[in-house]
Amino acid sequence: MASTARIPSVPAAPAAPAAPAGPIPGGGLGRRERARGALLGLAVGDALGAPAENMKPSEIRARWGRITGYVTDHPAGTDDTEYAIFSGLLLARHGSALTPVHVETAWHEWIADRAEGPFRGAGFSERGTLENLRRGLAAPISAQHRHAWSDGLAMRAAPHGVFAAGRPDEAARLAAIDGSVSHDGEGIYGGQAVAAGVA
Hints:
mainly alpha
């Protein structure tokens, strides 16, 4: 920004306000840096937690003690990161114009109709969805399975919040559209809460 001190017709800018007493949300980082941090944090957290997934705290302590870093030489994420990438790709392709048809088409194109591919892993809600899609059921019927309540949408909802930064209602709306193929009820609400929180 150019200085206005040399231009007589523009009044001098008022003194900067005192720094706030508490921390600034986002730490003064720009939107791109916060988005990158949110998505990298998701992936790193997933890789850190993956070896201990589904273990009881007592089992974790017995095996590793207190975990303060990676516990394997080759950390890798899970389907949580893969499906967050899936949601991010949907947003990159469709943005706020995202519809359930777009989501369902992507499930077929990138996951259900392939024997192998980048979205290899799947939680139980995704497996139920894949089974329904492969049987020819369309959204929202594809989301009617025993695990539609699960956290699968919540695990992939961060990109919606990143995309709709500062607009939690829009982030929640997009998460509900994404989840309409795979989740229902509490499964949708959990994803909306994560997306809105990230936004």
